[in-house]
Specification:
The protein has helices spanning 39-52, 73-81, 103-117, 167-170, 176-179, 205-214, 216-223, 225-238, 249-271, and strands at 2-3, 6-7, 12-17, 24-30, 63-66, 85-88, 130-132, 137-139, 145-148, 153-155, 158-164, 190-197. The protein is α+β, with helices and mostly antiparallel strands.
Length: 276
């Protein structure tokens, strides 16, 4: 499983928790790091758990929140088809937070400092390229012609014309360190010249979710997630239940379910009838 610590032999424990008592209502262990395609399997697992207890359509009466790791077009579409009130963060949600309005300023400063540290005086920008929109030609600062590889590219909702340098032009070029952000691992330079906005079409599931989660109500609902599910994983870690000791998914999944049972029993023992 590929993780931030490299490739390991491990499993990913996923849990769904109720907001009122932090009781685990569904848990599954998966042999994969990415979670984008795990949202709907977890939702279906919750339904099966409650149906086994004689309860149906529980999620249609609830709100489902998940972090950006579970965000995908298919997952959001599946929630809509099931008529579930979901609040799933997208990878750029924090960037739209007004508390991070200065992020670009610090990002630009970081790039300048890194360029100075690496002996680069700053990267070439699209305006440094000789672009002729009428004849559709583009010449790089080193005098090499780039070839066009798309006239109607959709980049963040805007139409762009893209140009790419041939390998023969970039390999060994003396301006390579000023043209490529990572000259050690990037082969050639690409540059895009923006034009009109893409014609508005019907909103995608992601666009509808962005509007929903950015609304005042959406922010209030989603921000409860942090105090709902994260303490459960903290409880697992505090009691040494943060490592699997078995192999194969069947055995690991049983161990993860047992961890969840122990957590729930601890809640019932501490709070008694309050949890019940």
């Amino acid at each position: 499983m590929k993780t931030s610590h490299g490739v390991i032999q491990g499993y990913n424990g996923v849990a769904a928790v109720d907001n009122k008592h932090q009781i685990i209502v569904e848990a599954q262990a998966y042999g994969q790091g990415p979670e984008q395609d795990l949202l709907l399997p977890m939702v279906d697992g919750i339904d099966r758990r409650f149906e086994a207890m004689g309860e149906s359509d529980v999620l249609k009466q609830s709100q489902v929140t998940a972090d950006s790791g579970f965000h995908s077009q298919s997952g959001l579409k599946g929630l809509a088809e099931r008529r579930i009130d979901g609040y799933i963060a997208d990878p750029k949600m924090r960037q739209r937070d007004p508390r991070f309005v200065d992020r670009d300023k610090y990002k630009a400063r970081h790039r300048k400092e890194r360029a100075a540290y690496e002996g680069r005086s700053g990267l070439f920008k699209p305006r440094d390229f000789d672009y002729d929109p009428e004849h559709r030609t583009c010449i790089c600062p080193a005098g090499h012609a780039l070839y066009r590889n798309g006239r109607h590219n959709n980049i963040a909702g805007r139409l762009a014309e893209k140009y790419t340098a041939p390998k023969s032009a970039c390999t060994g070029c003396e301006l390579r360190v000023r043209c490529l952000r990572h000259p050690d691992r990037t082969a050639v330079r690409q540059v895009a010249f923006f034009k009109d906005k893409v014609p508005q079409q019907s909103k995608s599931p992601t666009e509808r979710m962005i509007e929903k989660i950015d609304s005042p109500r959406g922010k209030r609902v989603y921000h409860q997630r942090l105090g709902t599910v994260e303490p459960v994983f903290g409880n697992h870690r505090n009691h040494g239940r943060d490592r699997f000791t078995l192999r194969t998914r069947i055995k690991v999944n049983i161990q993860w379910l047992l961890y969840s049972v122990v957590h729930n029993l601890g809640k019932a023992h501490r709070y008694g009838d309050v949890v019940a």
